[in-house]
């Protein structure tokens, strides 16, 4: 394909959606019994900003969601893209993949693709899946997702590379919009042949067929405390009690302190276990020291001890399973400089159960030292805004300025928005820390990606919230955060990272921002 300063070929931007009901207007209802406000449709929903391209030509882009329709077969997203800066040649957007996530239940959906990985919807008329793009010309696209449950009324969009777009309503229709009558994308593949002024580029449409597949999964979140950690994977919750406060070395009898911890955990179990599936699995784990057979038996004895105390505390109205998994499932890597902390984290007893997801969002949460936090801090999703407001804090390191904006509640999560600006005269790829910024003995699974070193700390409770992960099964994970690439001189880039939400009465948190250090008093917007 010919190259020009006036025309380029680009792959359509990737994107992530968070599904759920949402809110608009006055937020005084939050936490009362009135439920979410009435859904309003105000299409298009538009944001502008700079995006990472694989060619380093990081142009400003205007991205507009013009419709989101739910039929009996699909969820169809319509959107428009316009590049506001001059870019050349073939470029690919490096933002997150297109994904739909319900922020209340944590369900995850991705686009339908064919066996070759090509997306259904707007068909590329160019080579290698690229689309013709002209400066100042709007391209119209549509994409297909699995049908979102009918009770979901609005979604949040993240992943165009422009941060979060919350509060996008879903429109229930009998049939999707007609295909473009005269798609003109194929007629404008050369730089010398732009469309007439004021004319959008449109493309042929391909609906999903029998070969179409779409990844589906759950958002998995992780909250940590000194005595326990809580992992939420969709409707499955796992409370891990750190064994160093549970048992003496090489023993399976609970300490006095441990009995109190287990009884505390029992209250969380009783509140959260799905009454239709009241099965609780108690799982014992050891660190990596010792023989497999010995560790398996020790972990089983410890799990049995905890099960008996649970049964004593909450009764026999549950089905109890006990497993001893020894050292086969570590959560932290042993053998490194923080080996002692890693082994301590791996020595644990877990309660795993299915969560009751039928209840409405609520602001209520017990002060339980971290037990159950990942699941119960659920509010209504956030309204749409194209304005992050004023930066709450600014830090600079090695020629990169980090502006941190207020956190925004969105269902069971908070959206952390930051802006990175290269203040030097040369391109810079910043060291964001990643797993190197992990707290001693911390879980590597929730520390991957360039923003994986970010956490939210509640200095009052000591609870730490890690960046959420999207779990698509078969060990296929995706970090719920935008990756950081090479920063061009003097240009700002907006990025988001999504964390499990704290209780509604928590008004500010400390951001652990990897190599930028701890940044205190980041406010949480209650809207």
From TrEMBL:
CDD domains recorded: OmpA_C-like (cd07185)
Signal peptide range: 1-19
One GO CC term, this protein: cell outer membrane
Pfam families: OmpA
InterPro entries: Bact_OuterMem_StrucFunc, OMP_bac, OmpA-like, OmpA-like_sf
Swiss-Prot/TrEMBL keywords: Cell outer membrane, Membrane, Signal
Composition bias type Basic and acidic residues, residue spans: 325-360
Chain intervals for the UniProt region annotation (Disordered): 174-209, 325-385
Compartments, as annotated in UniProt: Cell outer membrane
Domain of life: Bacteria
Glycosyltransferase as UniProt keyword: no
Domain OmpA-like stretches: 234-357
UniProt-recorded name of the protein: Outer membrane protein OmpA-like peptidoglycan-associated protein
Protein species of origin: Nocardiopsis mwathae
